[in-house]
Write a structure and sequence with these properties.
Its main location: secreted. InterPro entries: C1q_dom (IPR001073), Cerebellin_Synaptic_Org (IPR050822), Tumour_necrosis_fac-like_dom (IPR008983). The chain is α+β, with helices and mostly antiparallel strands and about 250 residues long. Strands 3, 4, 5, 6, 7, 8, 9, 10, 11 and 12 form a ten-stranded antiparallel sheet that branches. Strands 1-2 form a two-stranded antiparallel sheet. A hairpin with a 4-residue loop joins strand 1 and strand 2. The longest helix is centred in the N-terminal third of the chain and has 65 residues. The two termini are about 80 Å apart. The chain binds 2-acetamido-2-deoxy-beta-D-glucopyranose (3 copies). One 2-acetamido-2-deoxy-beta-D-glucopyranose (NAG) binds next to loops. The site of one 2-acetamido-2-deoxy-beta-D-glucopyranose has 4 residues, from loops.
């Protein structure tokens, strides 16, 4: 449009100069000029039309681009939200992740156990062990296996030593107790009822016993190992090798 105005301006100045600068003119020459001018006008009109067409096309392109940009901004927002959620997931500490120190023959490695992840097929499994020795624990005391090997389904609480079934199912439980100059009856309690029992005794030596129980457990019921009601004494041995442990998993 600016170009067009400029053209008109130049044209007017030319015309004015031609008019005042040549007072005596014959009509033939004026006619010629008018003819020339009307040709120019026609040309200008077609140029304007062309510009208007281009303008329309450009407006279309701009509106399409701004639509696309809006789309991109929306997608970016969605992606950012997803990344944010993933980051929260990664940073989340469910209180059940345990730093483990594991000793092989020559080396000690430290790794973080991730727990609380439920397997896609609904398998529940935990395995935990005691990191320390206990002595003269007494009767009817819950054994806390405070370090986790695995805790799929996040059912086992290593602070209190209690497994709470995330779902109803048929479960296998097994526990191993190592004593030193000790005598311990340990029992598996499921929802307050005894579902297994062993006795481990050793005079001035160390010895281990294991027991296994298969139990149908209803979601929400608690399962733990405790000392029996009478005559328990001496030491229970464990440590990072996991000599005393407690495990459970679903079989249906
Ligand atoms: C332990 O170290 C010895 C000697 O350095 C080496 O021969 C052996 O292969 C190592 N064992 C392991 C399990 O790394
Ligand atoms: C359940 O899923 C886990 C992990 O995907 C797999 O390791 C395990 O073998 C599966 N268990 C069964 C019974 O399919
Ligand atoms: C448990 O006691 C035994 C014997 O005193 C000892 O060798 C072992 O280091 C102790 N374990 C822990 C984890 O303190």
């Amino acid at each position: 449009m600016a170009g067009f105005c400029l053209l008109i301006g130049v044209f007017l100045v030319t015309f004015d100069y031609g008019h005042t600068g040549n007072d005596i003119r014959d009509t033939g020459s004026t006619k010629q000029q008018i003819l020339k001018l009307s040709k120019m006008m026609a040309k200008l009109e077609s140029v304007v039309e062309e510009i208007q067409n281009d303008n329309r096309k450009l407006k279309g392109v701009i509106s399409e681009l701004s639509n696309r940009l809006e789309n991109e901004i929306r997608l970016r927002g969605q992606l950012e939200e997803r990344v944010r959620r993933c980051e929260i997931c990664l940073n989340e500490d469910d209180g059940n992740d345990v730093i483990m120190h594991q000793t092989s023959l020559n080396t000690t490695t430290t790794r973080k156990r991730f727990s609380g992840i439920r397997t896609p097929n609904g398998t529940i499994a935990f395995s935990a062990y005691m990191t320390h020795n206990l002595s003269n624990l007494g009767n009817l005391r819950i054994l806390v296996f405070d370090a986790i090997f695995i805790n799929e389904g996040n059912g086992y609480n290593h602070y209190v030593g209690v497994f709470t079934a995330p779902r109803t199912g048929l479960y296998v439980f097994t526990w191993t107790i190592r004593t030193y100059d000790g005598y311990y009856n340990t029992q598996l309690l499921v929802d307050g009822l005894m579902d297994g029992s062993i006795y481990t005794a050793s005079n001035f030596i160390t010895d281990s016993s294991s027991a296994t129980a298969v139990v149908r457990v209803v979601a929400g019921q608690s399962v733990y190992i405790r000392t029996g009601p009478a005559n328990n004494g001496g030491a229970i041995y464990s440590g990072n090798a996991g000599f005393s442990s407690f495990s459970g998993w679903t079989i249906d």
